[in-house]
From TrEMBL:
InterPro entries: ABC-2_transporter-like. This is ABC-2 type transport system permease protein. The chain crosses the membrane at residues 17-35, 47-68, 80-99, 141-160, 166-184, 196-215, 250-273. The lineage of its organism: Bacteria, Bacillati, Actinomycetota, Actinomycetes, Micromonosporales. It holds the Pfam family ABC2_membrane_6.
Length: 286
């Protein structure tokens, strides 16, 4: 991984747990440091998120104003504003877009070096992605939320369990997003070039994750189908619904549990696909 020192310990049969944790932590730190070097990109990205936050917020508030009772999909104006601005802050934390590292390394043949390392590729990339997410949480989450709070009335959680559920939901969203992105990138093992699947993912993920509009605005049967049959609503829609308390405590917890199931499934699928790909890997280029 980029920026990782050669002195990182590897797994030892004498103390496998402690060294495995140290290795995972070192890989997380390398992912954090990698993204911390792009300070200007961080500022520019935050500004872009804020601009689009205003556009999305005004559109959804107009929808709520024209809806019966001032509710759109069960959200009040304050809930919609919170949904938008916290969603803009979480967009880069969850990172549903813009990651093609694995696909590029497969295309160039550099993936062969990853396969020689003592840490499996899925574990190594997951650790680095968690480090990336930690950096984005520190630098990209707060600016849109602060601007949104200054420009619009936002809603604060009224139930004590909302805050820990939201924190758990965000972590699960990061893990689930990684699993989805890894699988899309891994298509390069068979296709040689994953630009097509990556473009398809970019176009579809924002819609199905609830970025452009809350999925609750869709017909109920379609919303339930997307939530149960796909992991994508868990990337943004679930943590945002938990935060704005769109549902009661029991359903809040149920949505996070469903999100956890999908996160485990996606990471397990990523590991399975990686093992299958290694059996037939043909190094291209490099």
């Amino acid at each position: 991984m980029d920026g990782l020192d050669a002195s990182v310990p590897t797994i030892s049969p004498h103390r496998p747990l402690s060294v495995s944790v140290a290795t995972f932590g070192a890989l997380m730190w390398s992912g954090f440091r990698r993204y911390a070097t792009y300070r200007q990109a961080t500022v520019a990205g935050s500004f872009t998120n804020i601009v689009f936050g205003f556009l999305r917020c005004y559109v959804l508030l107009a929808v709520a104003a024209s809806a019966a009772g001032g509710l759109a999909g069960g959200y009040g104006p304050r809930q919609l504003a919170t949904f938008v601005w916290v969603g803009q802050g979480l967009l880069n934390v969850v990172g549903i877009w813009g990651w093609n590292d694995l696909a590029e390394r497969i295309r160039t043949g550099d993936i062969a070096a990853d396969l020689l390392r003592p840490v499996p590729p899925v574990t190594a990339y997951l650790a680095a992605d968690l480090g990336r997410s930690g950096y984005q949480m520190l630098t990209r989450f707060a600016p849109p939320v602060v601007v949104g709070a200054l420009a619009f009335p936002l809603v604060a959680p009224s139930r004590w369990q909302t805050v820990p559920l939201f924190a758990a939901s965000v972590m699960l969203a990061v893990v689930g997003s990684f699993g989805c992105r890894y699988l899309v990138n891994a298509t390069a093992y068979w296709l040689g070039d994953a630009r097509g699947p990556l473009m398809f993912w970019t176009l579809g993920a924002g819609v199905l994750a609830g970025l452009y509009f809350p999925l609750r605005l869709l017909p109920e049967w379609l919303t339930i189908t997307l939530w149960v049959a796909t992991p994508i609503p868990g990337l943004l829609q679930t943590p945002l619904d938990v935060l704005v308390e769109r549902d009661g405590p029991a359903l809040q917890a149920g949505l996070v549990a469903l999100q956890a199931i999908w996160a485990v499934i996606m990471v397990a699928l990523a590991g399975l696909v990686q093992r299958r790909a290694e059996r037939r890997l043909v190094v291209q280029g490099g």
